[in-house]
Amino acid sequence: MEPQLALPFSVLSVVEEVLQKHGSPLSDIDLASRKAEEASSRRNEAAEWLRKTVGIFGGKDMPSEPTEEEFRIALRSGIVLCNALNKIQPGAVPKVVEAPSDIVIIPDGAALSAYQYFENVRNFLVTMEEIGLPTFEVSDLEQGGKSSRIVNCVLALKSYSEWNLGGKNGLWKYGGNPKPSASVKPPILRKNLEPFMRSLSRGISLGDKDGLISDKSPNSDVKHDLSKVGSIPSLDSLVREILFNKKLEDIPIVVESLLSKVMEEFEQRLLIQPETFKTTQEDKAPLELNIACDDEKFLVPSFVKMEEDERVDAKQKENDDKYNGNEKSSNQTLKQQKLFQHQNENVQVTCKHMLGLASAASRYQKVLEENRKLYNQLQDLKGNIRVYCRVRPSKSGQQNHNCSVSNIDEGSISLIIPSKNGKEGKKTFNFNRVFDPSSTQGEVFADTQPLIRSVLDGYNVCIFAYGQTGSGKTHTMSGPDNYTEETVGVNYRALRDLFLLSEQRKDIIHYDIYVQMLEIYNEQLHTLEIRNSSHNGINVPDANLVPVSSTSDVLNLMNLGQKNRAVSSTAMNDRSSRSHSPEAEALGETISTLKFAERVSTVELGAARVNKDSSEVKELKDQIAHMKATSTKKDVELEHFPHYANNINETPKLKPQLNSNSRSPSLSNGSRKPPREYSSSMVENKKKATDKLMKRRSLDPMDIYRNSPQWPNHAGVNGNEDDKESVSGDSVGKSTKSNGRITIDHSLMEQFDTESQRSSSPMSSPTFPFDSSKIRMEAATTNDYDELELATSESSESDKSWQSNVHMPKTTSLSNGLVSKTRKSAHPRQVKNQETRSMIPSLSPSPRKKTTVVSQLRKHPDAKRKNGNAK
Ligand SMILES: Nc1ncnc2c1ncn2[C@@H]1O[C@H](COP(=O)(O)OP(=O)(O)OP(=O)(O)O)[C@@H](O)[C@H]1O
C-alpha cells in the first residue's frame, strides 16, 4: 500500500467526463481517416526516435515524416533496426551486416542482397523476441501496407529504451512482455474489472468543491465510496457503448485516442491544481491522505492516519509560519510534487485498465457473434415450420352444441365430434402451441417474435394466418379496428421489432428494408408476371420494391396499396355481412383447417432425394401392386357378381373390362349401378390430384397448401392416415382449393387465410401473416355430422378400392422424389434436422441483408360471399 495524496477531482470523474465528451463523437468520426492519421503519427514518432537513436544511415537520414513506403524501405536492410537495438542494449546484435562500401547505395537501399537483409532483420527479430518485445514478420518489410507491425515494434523498443533510461521504474507504454528482471515487478493487471473500479473509486479524493462529499468522518467516507461504486456501471457501460460497435481492429485506436484525451484532461487539471490547492488550503479544507486498496476495511485506518497527519501538518505549519516564512512555500511545493506523482501513477494504472476494458470489449464482440449463431441454431431446432393454433372466443350467446373443444393443452387441441349413430368421437390435433380463447395478442406474438431477429440475421421468414372466414385472422394479424398498445396484432408488433432491431444494429450493419405489395386474386397475381430464377428464387420483377425506414412508412404504403387495388372501389371488407361459418358447416371447416395445419406442421424441409430403389425393390413393388389389384378384383367380383362365388374358379366375363378400367359399360350391362368408387370421374379426380402432388417441387407453404390433396371431399392420394380419412362428398368438400400466395426471396411475413371454398381466394388484408389457424366451433345439422363422420373416419372404402385399382403409388413412395416429405404422425415439436435449413436456398442466410416485406390486399367481395376467405 502506498500513501496517496488527494485532489479535489477523481480519476474516475476525469475518465467519465472524457468518455461522455468524446465517446459519442468518436462513433461518428471516419475511423478510416482517423486510423490513417493515427498510423502516420505513430510512424512519425517511430521514425523520429530512430533518427535520434541511430543518426545518419548510408548518407541518408530517415525522413522525419516518412510515408509508409519510405519507412519500410529505410528499415528494409535491418541495419537501422539492429543499430538502434545495439544502442539500447550494446552487443544485443553482435554482427550487423553493413552496406558494402563498393556498392552504390541507391535511395531505397535495394542494393543490399536479400541475404544481408535477412541476416540483419532476423538477428534483430530474434533479439527482440529474447527481450520479450513485440516483433513483426520479415515479410512485413518486403511488402507495402504492413508497416503497422513494424511501427509497433519500433515504438515498443523506444518505450523499452525510455524505461531502461528511467532506471526500469514505472510503466512503459507500448506493450510487449519484457523478460522479468529481478528488480522490476511487472504491474499487476486485475482480470476482473469491477474490483479495479472499486479501488479506483475508493482512491478518489474528496473535497467540498466539485460537488464532492464534505463530511470527512470515516464512516461517511465509506458511504460515499460505496455510493460511488454505484456509478461504476455507468463508466463500464460508457466504455462498452463506445466500443460496442467498433471493429476489432479499430478498438485500439479508439482506446488510445480516448486515453490520450484522458491524459490531456488530467494534465490540464493538474496544471490548474496549484491554484485549486491554494484555494483549498485557504478555505482550510483538510488535506486528505487516502490509501488505495481493494478492501474497504482499510479505508478507516487510512482516514485515521489522515487526521493524525493533518494535526502534524497543522503543527508544522504553525511552526513554519512562526519561524520561517520561506519554508512554508517550499513545503507546499513538495506536497504538490508528491501529489502530482501519485496522480500520474494513478492515471497510468487507469490507462492500463482501459486497455483491459478494450480487450474485454473485443472479446465481447466475439461472444455476441457466437450468441447470434447459437440463437439461430436454436430457432432451427424449434423447427423450420411452426404451426400455432389460436381458438377464437365464441360470440356471446353462441353455443357449440354438437362440436366443442374438449381440451386445449399447450401443444394440442381435442375436439368432440358427434357421429351419426349418436356416439361421440374425439379428435386430437398437435401443434407447436395452441392458444386458448383467453390468450392475449402479446402472448400470441411472443412465440413468433424471435423470428423477427432471425430475419435481420439473414434468414427468410414467412408468417401467415390461415383459417375460415371470421375465425380471427385479421384480429391476430392486425388487431381490432381501434387497436391499442395491448390489442395491436402480429404485423405491427413485428414491424416495430424489425425497425427497432435494425436501429439498434445500425452502427454494425446497415439494413435496407423494402416493401412489396402484391394483389392476388383467384390464385393469380394481378397483372404481373411471376418468375422463378435460380438466382432470386420466385420473384415478381415488375413489382415495385419501395424502401421503408419506419413502421409508419409501411403503414402508409399499405394504405396506398389498398387504394390502388384493382377492386378497391367495391372491395370494402364488409365485416357485418360476414357470417360467423353459426352455420352448420363450421365444424367441417374447423376440422379441415386443423387437418391442413397439422399436416403442414409435419412437413420437414430438406433437400430433394433421388428415389433410388434398386431394380429388385421395384420388381417386388410391382408384384405387390399386382397382387393387390388381383385381390381387389376378386372382392369386387364376389360383391357384384355373387353367382360367381359358387364357382370361384370360373372366370367372369367382365374381367377384361375391369382390368381395362372401362368397367361402366360392362357393369351397366349387368343392370347394376357401378360402385361409386369406380366412377371414371373419381379416377380422374384422383389422378389429377396425384399429378399435382407429383408436380410439387417447392416447400413454399403456399405451394404445400395449393398442392395438398383436397380434403375433406377429395380423398388424399398420398396414402397417409389423414388422406385415408378424407372422403368425397360435395357438402363437406367446400374446402378444396387453396388461395394463392407469393413469397418473394428475403420476404419477411405474409398473411393469408383459407377460402372456405378455396377456389377463389384473393387476399383480404394488407397485413403481415402469422402461422395461426383460428377455429370457430359452431352448431352443425345432422346431415353435416354424416359428412363429418365420413370426413374423419379412419378410411374410406372408395380410397382403398381406388388405390388398388388405379395402381397409384402412395405418397410415401412419391415423397422420396419430392422436396418435402410429410411425417405421418410426427409431433410438430419434434426436432428437425437443422442441416436441412441451409439446403433450401431460399432459407439460407443471404449475404445481402435486404428484407422484403410482402403483404397482401384485402380479398374481393365476391370471395366474401363464399364461405371462406383468403389473406
Ligand atoms: N381472439 C379474438 N379475441 C376477440 N375477438 C376476436 C378474436 N378473434 C376474432 N375476433 C373477432 O371475431 C370477428 C372476426 O374476426 P376476423 O375479422 O379477424 O376474422 P377473419 O378470419 O379475418 O375473417 P375474414 O377472413 O372473413 O376476413 C371480429 O369481430 C374479431 O374482432
Question: If you had to describe this structure to a student in words, what would you say it looks like?
Answer:
The two termini are 74 Å apart. A hairpin with a 5-residue loop joins strand 5 and strand 6 (424-430). With 871 residues, this protein is an alpha/beta fold. Helices cover 47% and strands 8% of the residues. The chain is elongated. Mean pLDDT is 61; it is low at 1-5, 101-112, 175-232, 282-307, 568-580, 648-683 and 692-871. It has a 4-stranded parallel beta sheet. The protein has a 3-stranded antiparallel beta sheet with strand order 4-5-6. Helix 1 (11-28) packs across helix 10 (251-271), helix 2 crosses helix 6 (147-165) and helix 19 crosses helix 26 (797-806). Bound molecules: adenosine-5'-triphosphate. Adenosine-5'-triphosphate (ATP) is lined by residues 392-393, 467, 469-475, 480, 575, 578, 753, 764, 869.
